[in-house]
Amino acid sequence: MLKLHHLRVGRSVFTIWLLEELGAAYEMDFYDRNEAGRAPPELKKAHPLGKSPVIEDDGFVLAESGAIALYLLDKFDSENKLGPPTDDIKAKAEWMQWLMYSEASAFAPMLIKLLLSRTDPKPPVFDGFAAGEVALQLGYLEDRLEGREFVMGDRFSVPDIGATYIAQMAQRLGEIEPYPNLQAYLARNMARPAWQRAMEKTGG
Amino acid sequence: MLKLHHLRVGRSVFTIWLLEELGAAYEMDFYDRNEAGRAPPELKKAHPLGKSPVIEDDGFVLAESGAIALYLLDKFDSENKLGPPTDDIKAKAEWMQWLMYSEASAFAPMLIKLLLSRTDPKPPVFDGFAAGEVALQLGYLEDRLEGREFVMGDRFSVPDIGATYIAQMAQRLGEIEPYPNLQAYLARNMARPAWQRAMEKTGG
Question: Where, residue-wise, is CATH 1.20.1050.10 in chain A?
């Protein structure tokens, strides 16, 4: 059975959410962060980077949230309910852009903001960078969600997993308030039965 | 004709490199950074994030290096010389993992290292994070390149574009010296005719 190495609290609950959306069968190994908030060394036995999510499928080990998501689609979404358009390379590319966006462009500024929350006074180079970039990225998502229920339109799909992760980070960092579309989007996705099941299975 | 919005100096030269590897026809718009090293506001006319690379293809605008790379494969690599395996979902997933790795896991620590190079004294929260994470990521790439000419084995493919970007950042930040495989890999890729053409067309 497919196994997820799940580190509490962090990114991998979003992979569990996707597994639940797909109705996939899976099992979990649980890991807890140490006092400094870092992953425990045991995770390095699953994958050399020692991060989570990591999946194992019959000896095959895979890291990177975006790549894991695409693999889970290949494996569990034979009707392509949550995957990219397949008949138009431009529509497919736009879907891939939004899949990668949350892992790439949007993530680094949020990480810097998270590290800033742990230091005082705020170093100006990082504070200035984060102030501009976080507003840019969250404003971009806010605009994208204007008139759209989900990132790709009126249907939930895999790019919503990463975008919800960014929205949740924004909320936890106290940055979501100026973005009503993003707030409503986060609440909408967290009301989904699959998200609720992910919360129940992991303890939140 | 496909147009690339190219910001000097930065990530988008790696998209030009891929276009050259593919033998694609394209044109470029050039942008220069301002005194603070940031992209000029004109780039926001191409894409709301105002970053580069951005491509435009017959009115279709696409951002995110990884998504652009996959689109260029769909458009220009009909023989699948540089793309993912298509007959095995695990092999394809591993390829996607390495494509996304350079955009996601590897990038944020390198960005923080870059910002650290612009401030003195180094704020401990960021310095400590970067010290551990940069060594972890570059060591992971170093190990991957042990006995492999390219990230996916003995054949150059698209994940090498992003990995070379990370290697070049490591070199520019003075971090590459402990990693002989990575140094050799960077030199090997920068000796490729397509990279040389990208340098000539952009002025390096």
Answer: 89-190
> Which of A11, A38, A44, A90 to probe the B interface (max B CBs under 10 A)?
A90
CA distances from A16 to A55, A188, A198, B97 (A): 11, 18, 6, 18
Q: Does B131 touch chain A (CB under 8 A)?
A: no
Task: Determine the CATH number of domain A3-81.
Answer: 3.40.30.10
Q: What is d(CA B123, CA A65) in angstroms, rounded to the nearest whole number?
A: 29
pLDDT per residue as tens digits for the range A73-121? 999 999 999 999 999 999 999 999 999 999 999 999 999 999 999 999 9
Query: What pLDDT sits at residue B85?
Result: 97
Tell me the chain A residues in contact with residue B125 when contact means C-beta distances shorter than 8 Å: 115-116, 118-119
Among chain B residues, the shortest Cα distance to A74 is held by B89
B54 three-class SS: strand
Query: Does pLDDT of A36 surpass 90?
Result: no
Domain B89-190: CATH architecture, name and number where available? Up-down Bundle (1.20)
pLDDT single digits (tens) B180-199: 999 999 999 999 999 999 99
Q: The tokens 């390149």 sit on which residue?
A: B145
All residues of chain B having their beta carbon less than 8 Å from the beta carbon of residue A90 are 57, 60, 71
